[in-house]
Write a structure and sequence with these properties.
Largest sheet: none
Order of helices and strands: HHHH
Radius of gyration: 23 Å
Number of strands: 0
Structural class: mainly alpha
Distance between the termini: 24 Å
Oligomer: single chain
């Protein structure tokens, strides 16, 4: 679980990764908003009175969901959260790479 968190934090600190995630989430929530409105149509609630309200509700739910999921990469990219953890992980990765580079590999190597 810690490795997944480290990958997420380090990944979202890269601008194009965060942007790609946001674009993908926007497309997903546009699709989900349309699906939510279509659900009510399937239930037979599409008429001149209810349909504008249903579309408003579906768009609002879609925007709220997108904003909730967009807060995560935005906060990590802007270093509001996870910055100290990312530095610790980077330092740990560098020290692990140094130890692995110095340690001899092969049959006789101790572990």
């Amino acid at each position: 679980v810690r490795d997944v968190y480290a990958i997420m934090v380090l990944g979202f600190q890269v601008w194009w990764v965060a942007l790609f995630y946001l674009v993908a989430q926007a497309m997903l929530f546009i699709h989900l908003g349309h699906g939510l409105a279509s659900l009510f149509q399937t239930l037979g609630l599409r008429d001149h009175v209810w349909w504008p309200r249903i579309q408003w509700f579906a768009r609002g739910a879609s925007i709220a969901g997108f904003l909730g999921f967009a807060l995560i990469p935005a906060a990590i990219y802007l270093r509001v959260i996870g910055a100290d953890y990312a530095e610790k992980v980077k330092l740990n990765m560098k020290s692990t790479a140094i130890v692995e580079a110095v340690t001899p590999a092969g049959k006789g190597a101790t572990q």
